[in-house]
């Protein structure tokens, strides 16, 4: 009896596992098909200057509608990351985001004295350890014609700490002229002191610190901002939802902020509308009224 029972459980386990594997394979195939067939699109969340409120740049965020139902990136990115499919996903995003910023640049001009807006793209740790990553970034820059310094690659801190291959690739990417940002800073195990040796330009403080009501956490944010500035890094606060959070970040000297309080991630058209149209070519002077045509 016991034996029979045990075998039954094993069969159920096999069946569950088999279904999970099948579902995963199906999702992978659906992601690949969406990349080819137009089921993926990007939204762009503005990043603003904390001090003046001016637009600083955008972060490209991937959106997938599977048979009309939106699937959040937190659900499908991990599936893509389980195989080299994530490299295809990231490459698609790199091409689309750089093409979009280049297109906006062609018909807009930043206000006098304002820097040109940047485009940040998330690069998965798995892609960063893949040897194709440098060619993928270089390829997107070449195809779009975007100046490299306007592209920011967001990577998580874990990959920066302990992967020598990823570090080599990062050095090669920086040599291309692109900027590197540490995403979700504070959620990994990086200490403030380690920031000094990190091959990065920007630090993004994770939303969980920005929104925390705990005074200790707030003090930590102030400390991280000061340390980052000492090491020459730019600081972006993620997930700002309340005016008080923005005010505190201003007092703490944070450079840039991103969050629902400022802007939600926007479809391309709405994001592009935040940029100033290029001065139109001068029109011929209007004829004085009454002059013959
Ligand atoms: P992330 O890179 O840290 O992106 C920020 C996430 O926070 C985005 O979620 C954004 O919509 C959300 N967010 C922004 N402001 C607020 C706010 O004020 N409150 C709250 N509650 N959330 C806010 P999203 O778009 O769902 O993306 C989740 C994660 O998926 C991203 O985290 C990133 O790790 C990954 N991801 C998104 N797009 C891509 C992509 O193109 N490639 C790769 N490799 N990963 C991506
Ligand atoms: Mg990000
Ligand atoms: Mg983040
Ligand atoms: Mg995050």
Describe it for me?
Residues 24-279 form the EAL domain. Residues 278-289 have a biased composition (Pro residues). This is Diguanylate cyclase (GGDEF) domain-containing protein. Residues 275-293 are annotated as: Disordered. The chain has 11 helices and 9 strands. The protein is of the alpha/beta class. The chain has an 8-stranded mixed β-barrel with strand order 1-2-4-5-6-7-8-9, surrounded by 4 helices. Strand 8, helix 10 (243-251) and strand 9 (256-257) form a beta-alpha-beta unit. Helix 3 packs parallel to helix 5. It is globular, with a radius of gyration of 23 Å. The chain starts with a helix and ends in a 21-residue tail after the last helix. One magnesium ion (MG) is lined by residues 59, 122, 154, 183.
Give a nutshell description of this structure.
Helix content is 46%, strand content 18%.
SSE map:
Blueprint: H1 2-37, E1 40-49, E2 55-66, E3 69-71, H2 73-81, H3 85-106, E4 118-122, H4 125-128, H5 133-144, E5 151-156, H6 157-162, H7 164-176, E6 179-185, E7 202-205, H8 207-210, H9 215-230, E8 234-237, H10 243-251, E9 256-257, H11 268-272
Parallel strand pairs: 2-4, 4-5, 5-6, 6-7, 7-8, 8-9
Antiparallel strand pairs: 1-2, 1-9, 2-3
Helix pairs in contact: 1-3, 2-3, 3-5, 5-7
The structure holds ligand C2E and magnesium ion (3 copies).
Domain EAL: 24-279
Region (Disordered): 275-293
Protein name: Diguanylate cyclase (GGDEF) domain-containing protein
